[in-house]
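Long-time lurker. I teach an intro course on protein structure, and each term I like to show students one example going from raw sequence to a predicted 3D structure in token notation. This year I'd like something fresh instead of my usual example. Would anyone be willing to generate the tokens for the chain below so I can use it in lecture? Attribution to the forum is fine with me.
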Amino acid sequence: MADYVVSQVSPTDRYTMEQVHALLLQEGITLDGNLDYTCAIYGEAYQVIATGSCFGNTLRCFAVSGEHQGEGLLNTVISHLITVQYQRGNTHLFLYTKCQSAKFFEDLGFYEIARVSDTLVFMENRRTGFSRYLSQLKRSQQNGEIVGALVMNANPFTLGHQYLAERAAAECDVLHLFVVSEDASLIPFSVRKRLVAQGVSQLPNVVLQETGPYIISSATFPSYFLKDELAVVEGHARLDLTVFGQIARTLGITRRYVGEEPTSETTGLYNRIMAEELPKQGIDCIIIPRKEVHGTAISASVVRQCLQVGDWDGCRELLPSSTLDFFTSEEARPLLEKIRRAGDVVHH
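-- Reply from a regular --
Happy to contribute to a lecture. Here you go:
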């Protein structure tokens, strides 16, 4: 082991990245679409014999060549990635792994948050991380006969989001509205949360919440060890629901509201799984038809397209005044420039 060195792999190093990809495939893993750092250990012939990667504060895509398993190479890779994360200022780390690998990561100081049987385990490097998050939520608990929940990314907050919140709030004594906290969207979390708060300020029974790192968007859910797109959607949905079940028990939530998804097949599948699984946890799943403009469901991706090309008439039809006021303000100019420069705004 003394001869082995871990090195960063540049994403432009196509030769080495092809080796990384091939090694992952040998282990039944595909190269994840969301990576911002990859490292490798090389053998005597300068071939990749171990690899691992990061995205944000998560560790991903580990593999060791079968000829070198049992030599402690994975420990070396993980230690290297943790060092890289600490140098970035990320000390609260997360990973997703196959169920059979969970014990290995427990031995490296990771703790289970939730698992989907026979599929995956979600882990973090803080023993009390998730329980502390639940304790923080508990402090915001409010009594009511009907306590509901909404989870939204709101990228950005539209008239559709506002309509969904108003419908849900009208049916509940208390509505906990969770804004997805991960900063993987084109519009940063700080802006998204503020626009949500302004957009629901007229609803006195809404309690605004942050998901923290425990509920993530489909865009960054790891797919590298799940066999196909259907398995990815199911894995994400079931993990989300497992985590959400613990949140619901903490806050006394008995209903979760979701917007109907008429166009996206994957989101539609996610909603169907939610409708099947939530009642097993004593939570009603209520799907609300989407608000429409000119016969078409309001979509945040369409809003981003309007913002990108400066279609303010389109924005006025799709956005509440508070969101529109922000994007027409001087403060929004750098963000608008970022949106204009972005190539694909539909999936961001």
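Some talking points for your students: The chain has twelve helices and 14 strands. The two ends are 42 Å apart (CA to CA).
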